[in-house]
TrEMBL record:
The keyword GTP-binding applies. Keywords: GTP-binding, Hydrolase, Nucleotide-binding, Ribosome biogenesis. Residues 17-373 form the Tr-type G domain. GO terms for biological process: cytosolic ribosome assembly. GO terms for cellular component: cytosol; ribonucleoprotein complex. This is Elongation factor-like 1. The keyword Mitochondrion does not apply. It comes from Eleginops maclovinus. It comes from the Eukaryota. Residues 925-938 have a biased composition (Basic and acidic residues). Pfam families: EFG_C, EFG_III, EFL1, GTP_EFTU. SUPFAM superfamilies: EF-G C-terminal domain-like, P-loop containing nucleoside triphosphate hydrolases, Ribosomal protein S5 domain 2-like, Translation proteins.
Amino acid sequence: MAHTSLDRIIALQRNPANIRNLCILAHVDHGKTTLADCLVASNGIISSRLAGKLRYLDSREDEQIRGITMKSSAISLHHTTGDQEYLLNLIDSPGHVDFSSEVSTAVRLCDGAIVVVDAVEGVCPQTQVVLRQAWLENIRPVLVINKIDRLILELKLSSQEAFIHLQKILEQVNAVTGTLFTSKVLEERAEKEKDKEEEEDKEEVETLTGDQVYDWSAGLEEADDSLLYFSPDQGNVVFASAIDGWGFSIQQFAHIYSQKMGIKAEVLLKTLWGDYYLNAKAKRIMKGAQAKGKKPLFVQLVLDNIWSLYDAVVTRRDKEKVEKVVSSLGLKVMSRDSRHSDPKVLLSAICSQWLPVSQAVLAMVCEKLPSPLDITEERVEKLMSVGARRFDSLPEQTQELKRAFLRCGSGEDDPLIIFVSKMFTVDNKALPKNRQRPLTHEEIAQRRELARQRHAEKLAADQTAAENPTARPPSESMQQEAQLAEISTAKMESLTLKDSKPEEEEEQQNFVAFARIYSGVVKKGQRVFVLGPKYDPAKGLSMLPDGCRASDCVPEVPHMCCCSMESLFLLMGRDLEDLQQVPAGNVLGIGGLEECVLKSATLSTSPACPPFIPLNMEAMPIVRVAIEPKHHSDMPKLVRGMRLLNQADPCAEVLIQETGEHVLVTAGEVHLQRCLDDLRERFAKIEISASKPIIPFRETVVRPPKVDMVNEELGHQHKVAIHRVKEEASQGRSSDTLHVDPSGLVTLATPNRLASVSVRAAPLPQDVTSLLESSTELIRTLEQVNMSLREGRSVDISPRTLEAIAGFKAQLEELLQGRRWRNAVEHIWAFGPRRYGPNILLNSVEGYQRPSVWQCLCRGGGAAEAGAQTPFTRDLDNSIVSGFQLATLSGPMCEEPLMGVCFSLERWDIQSAAPQHQDSVEEDSISHEASADGKAEESSETPAQPVGLVSRPSQARRRPEGPPQGCYGPVSGQLIAAMKEACRHAFQAQPQRLMAAMYTCEIMATAEVLGRVYGVLGKREGRVLHEEMKEGTDMFLIKAVLPVAESFGFADEIRKRTSGLASPQLVFSHWEVISSDPYWVPTTEEEYLHFGEKADSANQALKYMNAVRRRKGLYVEEKTVEHAEKQRTLGKNK
Ligand SMILES: Nc1nc2c(ncn2[C@@H]2O[C@H](COP(=O)(O)OP(=O)(O)OP(=O)(O)O)[C@@H](O)[C@H]2O)c(=O)[nH]1
Ligand SMILES: [Mg+2]
């Protein structure tokens, strides 16, 4: 088919009803790019013989070499069905976990998705992830079950077995969507009931458009889920083998057989997939094929044909039969294909004519996926409501924009709304202005004329030479020749100039924004507002004059700037085409935004437009490396290169640590490799060296263990730890201000003795820690709300957020049960580090009232309370929180963040400019009291009873009535330091542990290599969680957890050891406490026997800790431990 001309595509862009924006999603290696190749070939962009081999959309060199997609890329295709012509903006996405952020950027711009599933492997972890992502973005999926040829040739299934296998796969996929659907319906029902209660007296009946797939009906029973599931008879499933170029939906076969057998197509459509069979005698289709042992229709009419074709062409190479089939199907096969030594060539020549996969898939896409006009209200509201803000609290003008979304109009009056989901770089060569264009007709004619002239002159010259051989050419012809030569050199020069130009310009990277236009029409050179994620339309509207446009000069509005669209591009895989304007509903590339847009942004001509909600990122960047240039003079280039890389990758993070190190954080090993290659070859163009991956750890405390390292009962370990802290403290300079009591309560005074704090640390229950971890977003929102309340601003929080906060609180209350946690939730003072981390500060100071963190739940009351606080206490309250934040940000073991630790502040004395001697008397009395308490505590059953002390008699000696002089100066600062130190000492007074980051790892392996996989897992401290056999195949699915610290080179090792038959997918899953104590030294006879005197070989935690300390340039205590052991040994032997 001819290459679609640009004009045709431009014409199609104007008709949004016939536009489909879609992406291809799947697990890694399930054949997305191969399928995309087939679709691209149908438009004549690549030859159909190369489809599947070229992987056209994998345009990067490393993508071709490694055979995996790393960046999502888009291409515009057209398709005609009947009298309708469609424009398809297709985005191919990567399937490897490391690049799942690229999937997020693709999904946001689309209305639909093709989900590809490998017929052998079935639903894999990433399949579930992409289905979830599609669901979260409210886009509609269709299914392609790919690689059916593997069922025939590799697994050697019979057609009947294959049918059962395919049914199973469909069930698996539908099970995933079913779970998503159920949870959503239940959630909505709860919300609706709540809404109803609120609105009962208003008597307002909501009218909703009827065409929503996800109905807002009351419950599961009533919810319409028929459109949700994949089913061949719904027309949303295609069976394919992309590599052999064939694919079909059952509509096609229903059509063929309805003509052949005279059965109605609708009847066939309903019965072709399912438990039906053909009763040849009665010429009727009957139910119950399985029970009666008959061949189901699908097997008889569909699969058998394909199976016998494969059998004839590939297995038996039966020439006669092939010819018969070819002629009966009315196909033409070129003789070079039928003579080819590889039977697959002939097979794909036949199949791609008989059942072209592109036809099947494109027809399904055009029919089943929604157009940009079908965008639902629900999706629009979701895109427009950021964070805690609810849609109906947005300014009126903003709410009106919803209509613009739904209209998707391209009139002059329609506001322009564009979302940029990522920035990517292109080579200069790929830019249309630098590319050599094909010659125009005039140019060709001119050239032809020139050539003809030359030829005529040459002939004429020959003639004169022949006529007059002695008198050599007259000067005239010489001149002409010289002229011609001149022209050609000039041309040559111009050509070479053109060639060399890009090289000069190569230094500069061209950033193109990957974007979708939701409303209005964008023109080249137009000026628009660029709205950052924190932009507030209410603020913008109030600050800007009415009717203000981006072309006018813009006053200072936070998170808003102006930019002009320097160039607009049509994205055509590797190429870009220049466009003058683009109407609503299309995916496009925009050049010239790199100054205003970092990774993503919302662009609009209306200041009322809210920023879109942030992308749902599935991958968490976890692998960090420090990067250095080989030559130090290259530092500025590296800095610039890292900045570019940060902009060009949705997931990579670039940081400069306090130590001055440049750190790159990536999602995994493969992603890391790609980022380093990019830095070397594109962005920095210098030699760089990367450190070994920096492995993150967390520090925590645990309850005292009951047994020792050789599983003997143990009662003293805890005390040993405290003993050590005491020793350390007494050695330190601060010993006169520090007091640690045996129960673990640490009291520390500021150097000027004006204030002192008493802090106790305790481990949080594991469930609480996980809850805190999974609720970071919510805690952050809570913190923002509290901040606003503290500043006296009112915030309109959506009921959904409020409900989520209340739910979170209730969950915490439920998990924090027992005497020690009595009232703890009410007394939460702060979360940390960074105010939303998984550690808690408790207010256990008797008599100290402060606004609760939950004040947004009881509106009004909280604000009044906040008002009652004097600025004096509020200031110092902040110091306590800051001290806690600092302490949780880096712990005493190896300066890694803390996790799952609860600090409770039990006493807090502030004296304002009191005389020194009085103060020390005061201190004494406190210490006295504290140790008395400690004794009382010791005599109770469990020595570590930290938070149980909440209800003890008052110990607060705050004196707010004193003059607040000096408190703004040093006291608040000193209090921060004292609080931080106190927390650290309190932490050290408990048994400390490291926490390691863990990956979950799913490996598919055949039975032969299973043993080797286990070998590698075992060597790297992996733990197998479960193993199951994939039904119908000889593949095993192994699920394991593996410490991140042991994971480098893991994928490679597995691949090598199994000759590429198994490849793992590593995804960050959770943090796990390493059970061994890094400070442990053998103390009992048995332990000496078991571990020897040094006992450092067995201590993995110590190794990790020392490695981190060494990397950070901290003191590593190896020598000291050795001496301590000796001394203790002596002591023991005495
Ligand atoms: N047997 C068979 N192999 C296929 C088929 N389709 C693709 N493959 C092979 O599967 C491998 C992966 O194909 P890709 O198209 O690169 O897979 P992908 O889903 O794009 O992979 P990522 O982009 O890395 O996630 C290639 O070796 C293909 O040749 C098919 O229909 N049958
Ligand atoms: Mg791919």
